[in-house]
Design goal:
The protein is of the alpha+beta class. It has two domains: 2-34 and 156-229, RNA polymerase, RBP11-like subunit (Gyrase A, domain 2, 2-Layer Sandwich), CATH 3.30.1360; 38-151, RNA Polymerase Alpha Subunit, Chain A, domain 2, CATH 2.170.120. The chain is 25% helix and 37% strand. The protein has a four-stranded antiparallel beta sheet, with helices on both faces. A four-stranded antiparallel beta sheet has the order 3-8-4-6, covered by helices on one side. Strand 10 (187-190) and strand 11 (193-196) form a beta hairpin. The two termini are 31 Å apart. Bound molecules: zinc ion. Zinc ion (ZN) binds at residues 77, 80, 82, 86-87, 89-90. Residues 77, 80, 82, 86-87, 89-90 line the site of zinc ion.
Length: 263
């Protein structure tokens, strides 16, 4: 297997994986969606809410805010020494107190410890008119995407097989005429080699091929060469999310191997 990092910065990751199989990359994708833990607000205590929104709506919006997650220091609440009561090892607390007129943003959540300050701090929660107030306290705990979507950190992890465009050299004049019909900057024709300028635009080219019945151009896919892309919601960097996902996958295989020994 060969892996090349195309992009792994901030919340975005793009990897080129060669000499692999679709099922392997897909298992990594499934781990990112369902197994990778992250912090999300799970408990909301509302002391005062005179805004236009119901308590439940505000609680729902709070649940979707990305909370910075450090998996090295946090444990799941049900596995914690505090036996589910909630302690600094398993629970991160925030307070929020604001009076109108203003907009309450995610960044208004004040953490117990500065290291948990909300990084995606401009997400609007509710707009307050004059004299309206919101005072509340929240608890964020670790969870997994398979339990609730608010604990899904990675957004739309996806892979695309590398495509090759083949041109029938005997019909090169028709190919040239077809390329003339296409939107600018979609493809590049060098001699008898046709290439997409942006590989993500493949479906656009396919729709033109179908429309023009251009059977002198064919697109083939290579399932051993994949471009894997994903983004995080901001609770963790793309690099950390990738490393943690691989650790989880490796642990699952280890567990399976261990169970086989006992058979
Ligand atoms: Zn605890």
């Amino acid at each position: 297997m060969k892996v090349k990092t195309v992009e792994l910065k901030g919340n975005k990751g793009v990897l080129k994986i060669e000499d692999t199989d679709v099922y392997f990359v897909n298992s990594l994708r499934r781990v990112m969606l369902a197994e990778l833990p992250k912090l999300a607000i799970d408990n909301v205590i509302i002391y005062d809410n005179t805004s236009a929104l119901f308590d439940e709506l505000i609680a729902h919006r709070l649940g979707l805010i990305p909370i910075p997650t450090d998996l090295q220091t946090l444990v799941f609440r049900d596995q914690c020494k505090c036996e589910g009561k909630g302690c600094p090892n398993c629970t991160v607390r925030y307070t929020l107190s604001k009076e109108g007129d203003c907009v309450v943003y995610s960044g208004d959540l004040q953490p117990e410890h500065p290291s948990f300050a909300i990084t995606e701090n401009t997400i609007p929660i509710v707009e307050l008119m004059k004299d309206q107030r919101v005072i509340l306290e929240v608890e964020a705990v670790l969870g997994r995407g398979r339990d609730h979507a608010k604990w899904q950190m990675v957004l739309a992890p996806r892979y695309r097989m590398e495509t090759k465009i083949q041109v029938d050299k005997k019909h090169i004049n028709e190919v040239k005429a077809f390329v003339e019909e296409l939107p600018k900057d979609l493809v590049e024709l060098k001699g008898d080699k046709l290439e997409l300028k942006d590989p993500s635009q493949k479906s656009i080219l396919e729709s033109y091929l179908e429309k023009h019945k251009a059977d002198y151009i064919s697109i083939t896919k290579d399932p051993s060469k994949l471009l894997f892309s994903f983004e995080t919601d901001g609770s963790m960097s793309a690099k950390a999310a990738l490393q943690e996902s691989i650790n989880i996958l490796a642990k699952k295989y280890e567990e399976f191997r261990g169970l086989l020994k006992d058979l």
